[in-house]
Specification:
Length: 268
């Protein structure tokens, strides 16, 4: 709402200046949309294009286990995976997705594996779960267009948030899979699975892990199937498979999906 208000202020100022000069149209595009002065902690400003795409606020990191846990504790929320009693886990032994009983946001790989660390992206969350969190937090999911605009650094780059090269100077800028998926991960980025948020430097606009680590839900759905668009790729994405760390890529998944490489990031 703050963003919209500011945008309207800019437009009003533009009209006044244009009117004073006797040529309102001369003002078009002259007033650059500025970020709000009170950006909430943990969010960054995504600059608009001064025309069709307004600026907006976006979480700097993927939704963490700690943040989701605070929401669960306050309202005793039960996730869909907890309702179902199982969720999807990719097995690097059997090289496929398996339904694992008791896999939830607390234990994304199942109850016999480690609990999710507080600074890990929260996973095993369905669309309903992420939207419930968003309502509680006063935020919302980005549309696919907003998400891609943010990842592109407001239209600056064609494929990757950090620039034109996929691996600049030979140093991996995000967490994905290096090697032929699913047979061999060479772990050239240092993380064989999920990574804590902020394990890699932020993009120029302040977003961490906008490419890689975990897929992120968006508010965009395919009309015919009601499947949701997910963006950003995950630690399971390789150049031999989904290349999800290229922000032009997308996947579609049903809203009740629970997967150990799917989380979210919100906007306001
Ligand atoms: Ca990795």
């Amino acid at each position: 709402m703050e963003t919209i208000i500011y945008s309207l202020k800019s437009t009003a100022l533009c009209i006044m200046l244009g009117a004073a000069a006797g040529a309102m149209t001369a003002c078009e595009g002259a007033v650059e949309e500025q970020p709000p002065t009170d950006i909430p902690e943990g969010m960054v400003w995504i600059a608009g294009d001064g025309a069709d795409q307004p600026g907006f606020l976006m979480d700097a990191t993927e939704l963490t286990t700690a943040a989701f846990g605070a929401f669960v504790e306050e309202i005793s929320y039960v996730t869909e995976a907890e309702d179902f009693g199982w969720s999807g886990v990719f097995s690097t032994d059997s090289l496929r997705w398996l339904p694992v009983e008791g896999a939830t946001w607390r234990f994304p790989l199942g109850p016999d594996s480690s609990a999710a660390a507080p600074n890990h992206p929260a996973t095993q969350l369905s669309l309903r779960d992420v939207n419930a969190y968003a309502d509680w937090a006063g935020k919302r999911l980005p549309t696919e267009k907003e998400w891609a605009w943010a990842a592109s650094q407001s239209g600056q780059y064609p494929n990757f948030p950090w620039g034109k090269e996929m691996v600049p100077n030979g140093k991996y800028p995000g967490n994905w899979w290096q090697g032929p998926f699913p047979y061999a991960d060479n772990v050239l980025d240092g993380f064989p699975g999920i990574a804590p948020v902020k394990s890699f430097p932020p993009a120029a606009n302040g977003l961490y892990d906008i490419s890689g680590n975990v897929w992120e839900w968006t508010a965009t759905q395919k009309t015919a199937t009601k499947e949701s668009v997910i963006k950003g790729g995950s630690f399971l994405c390789s150049t031999s498979y989904c290349t999800g760390f290229d922000f032009n890529q997308r996947q579609l998944t049903p809203g009740d999906s629970g997967l150990n490489h799917l989380g979210g990031r919100l906007v306001r």
